User: Fold this.
Amino acid sequence: MIRFILERVAQLIIIVFVVSTLTFVLMRLAPGDPATILLTAHNVPASEEALTALRKELGLSEPLHIQYVNWLRDVFTGHWGTSYVSKESVLTELWNRLPATVELASAGFVVMTVLTLGMGLAASVKSSGWLDRLGRLFALLGSSIPSFWLGFLLIYLFSVCLGWLPSMGREDWTHLVLPALTLGAGLGAVQARVLRAQMLELGDRNFVKAAKARGFSRTHILFFEIFKHAILPIITLLGTNLSFMLAGNVIVETIFSWPGLGKYFIDAITQRDYPVIQGYVIFAAFLIVGVQCLVDVVQAAVDPRLRLH
Amino acid sequence: MISNRKKPSWFVGTGVLLLLAVMALAGCSTTNKTVESSGKGENASTQQAKTDKKLVMAYTWKPSGVDPHGDNSWDVMRSGAGETLIRLNEKLEPVAWLAKEWKQDSPTVWTFSLRDKVTFHDGKSMDAEKVKASLLRSIEKSHLAKDLLDVKSIDVAGPLALKITTNQPNAALVSNLADPSTIVLDVASMKDEQSYPAMTGAFKIKAFNKDQSLVVERYDGYWGEKARLAEATMKFITDGNSSLLALQSGEVDVATDIPVDNAEVLKKNDKLQVLSAPSLRTHMIVYNMESPVFKDAVNRKVVDSLIPRASIVSAIMRGYGTEASSPFPSILPFGKVERKALDGTAEQLLTKDGWQKDAQGTWTKQGKPFEVTLLTFPQRPELSVMAEVIQSQLLKEGIQVKIRKVENIDDALTKNDWDFAMYSMLTAHTGEPQYFMDMFYSSKSEANVSRYSSKPLENLLGSLKLAKDTAQRNAVTLQALDIINTDLPQSFIVHPDNVFGAKKGVKGFTPHPIEYYYITAQSDIAE
Assistant:
């Protein structure tokens, strides 16, 4: 098991190295001079003297390879640079916004998990019933409605029309409801179909028939025979989607003005805040690969056969 | 194991969906009542609201801090916390604010008398020494302030008198002192990281929540008329649609920078009002003076004459704008100019210039068609629509336009593979033409995106710096605009309005051509 974990950590470092190099190259290839953008943020033309001074201050006057070496050294020594906009450490800026993202991702994850388990189990128990059909409809909607559209629909219904819930910001728990629903509902509905299919498939296996023959109760067979095996692919899906929620809920955070990493990333792109964009991509790579490692470890713990591969 | 018994019909599922739909519709039909009662817990706090009124504003930008001498000076100014020596009135004339009066001692020396009995938010009195320290800090921290003031030295000439010496004659100094980058603060307050900057406005900063909001509260020691609101909150909502929905749901009282399409939606809501004012922004076309086609002034003039400005104002801007005939809107005394009429028809001019129409109706010269590339960019969506309208209009006249959308227009303009481009600029951000003209038309300036060079114009820009009074400055600017409108390095299309949405009870929130003053002592909200 220790070797298994070490292998995953080594993979994580390699991936982060590749991601950081790619990010640096792509950022420098992207159009836009940060010095000009910073000075013209209010649409006031910038003087040449001011531009030259700012480029020097930002280290953009150095040759590209020097910028790259400095960048790589800094990434692996924990110096992720200073935001061009706020003039604060990128790592601190990202770290400060992480709690908001974790809060939203956790709430979204709860919504997703409850829907997955609730709808998946219900649909498998009552397959071909109205619950199953409703689940199919939700899964279809969940996979076809983009999250930004769902977000606006929920805001329109629950904030504008009904006035029940706030439409934006992060103040108390009520502010969490709509973004969490937007984030978790679609994914949960889709995963519920996967769980249902798994449950139905396993329901015909010999070990289930054997359990029935031994006289185990219907509930025991459902949870301790079928569900126990059906949950394995769901753990992978939950893990993948948790990484997505942590690192990729850019749209949901923007719609709901949620002050997390995703919204910060979008603002950084608009402002060409290179250190922040680069820092976020590496941070996100860490999160995604880290969560995937965790999922692998959990799966290996649940199913010892996986450790052999 | 898994049940396969006969299930209830589709009716049940459909019924659930219908129920949800009915609930939603029922909710929408009672919108007004719900929003009213859920707004801010009115029943419980009606009495308190009479003395403790609060306003919430959806604000499109997201300041990274509250230091008025950094990149966030506009945001601090708009919160009502910061003040400058000079203020611009609705006619964009410089009027007294923290400076009571001023005089020009020589072309480079100015003396400002400061207002008495002004205190900073930390309770300390404002004097010449503190204002000097503040101005020096703003010059050190802000490239813009440094460029605008062009200061050689600042001397204290008395407890409330300040002498400013500029490096070269800078007749725009007084107006430039209205720029938010020169907000006056107690520099000592910046040393304490636990407190907010101490400025002199009718409101003082109560809380700054990064990425979320800036909250200001009434400053009881204010030297002028006390603020009518006890508190105002600027919520940072960068997404336009989210901002509009927050206004419709009653979560915010005012929303800034409403896209003109959304203004129509707000107009239909009887609880909301749309407020607008002419802005100092100009949507324009910039020509690449090094383009093989547009280096010829005749071609620029023909294209300029074919731009359907009236229909752009009515159809694209929905009436929220005015036709442009110079970089400066006509609300400015030096913006009242007329476009030069074409000397003949477009057809006559092109024919005289050696162009002829081919069988397809396209103008050609020496075998090459009149084909040009027009750049546009996504950040101001109305410009892309305008580009399409212009493309269609020019095509009708036999001019082929290829539209290319670029992600970053400023970067694209530094390259040479374009002929003309949509552009937008705040042209007189201190009510003065000098800074914009120097940056946009000087052959030495990087911001001269058209790469336009005119010796007579540059001579006039030099004279503008030396002009003694407003009348002379306006006269020189009008002469400069005459050259610009003759050479046409740009075609000015429309001056868009600033559009805000607000609840009907909001008062004293008047859109202003200069976009510095949002929350003021006069801002109020009905009980």
Observations:
- Chain B touches chain A through 68 residues (CB under 8 Å).
